[in-house]
Design goal:
single chain; Double-stranded beta-helix; elongated; 10% helix; 56% strand
Length: 202
């Protein structure tokens, strides 16, 4: 559970994520991820769905999502790429948008676009189990199961790979699998669980 202390300021949170609050709070639904008309149109075109509410007031507000683990990410002007289903809450000053992911998003069943969070402030991500943050450098690329991917930051390039199967190596699966290969310099957030994906067992 995430406890957010508010002193007249506001945060943006996943619609329905508030579980309790103390003090005086107001809740306002923000259509299209809270980005105004342009955000609404972008999300309708891309299919990246994100129902957001703005919480403002004085006191403490508590957020949670199905008892998922919560991971705080501090941004200092950089951009965070995150699956909409894994974004719980952000500082109001952070801007949200969409970014093209291509085949990576399709393999996860999440569509061709993902959510972006940009600016200076904190974002709270949820994960099925405690997330691991993995460093990618030009010397150490990273392969990630699409179903375990949560988010990433930094100057990373993504490549979609087919025909690699972790489970086949230990004799548990015979289907074709897909992976995302990250190259460059940045951080990748991975959860110790796998969403249902399309395109084979991963």
């Amino acid at each position: 559970m995430l406890a957010v202390d508010l002193t007249g300021d506001s945060v943006k949170a996943k619609n329905g994520a508030m579980v309790a609050y103390e003090g005086e709070m107001t809740f306002k639904k923000r259509t299209g991820g809270g980005e105004g008309l342009r955000g609404i149109m972008t999300r309708r075109l891309t299919g990246e769905q994100m129902a957001v509410m703005e919480v403002k007031g004085h006191g403490t507000c508590y957020f949670a999502d199905r008892a998922s683990e919560i991971n705080l990410v501090s941004l200092q002007g950089e951009k965070l790429y995150v699956e909409a289903s894994n974004l719980l809450c952000t500082d109001a000053a952070l801007r949200t948008g969409t970014s093209f992911t291509g085949l990576r998003g399709s393999s996860q069943g999440n569509g061709l676009f993902t959510t972006t969070v940009e600016g200076t402030g904190q974002a709270a991500l949820v994960s099925d189990g405690a997330a691991v943050v993995l460093r990618v450098t030009p010397q150490t690329p990273l392969q990630v199961d699409p179903g375990a991917y949560i988010a990433h930051t930094g100057g990373l390039k993504q490549h979609f790979q087919a025909g690699v199967n972790f489970r086949a190596l230990i004799g548990e699966s015979g289907g074709e699998s897909f992976q995302i290969r990250f190259e460059g310099d940045g951080l990748v957030y991975v959860q110790p669980s796998e969403r249902n994906t399309i395109g084979g067992e991963v």
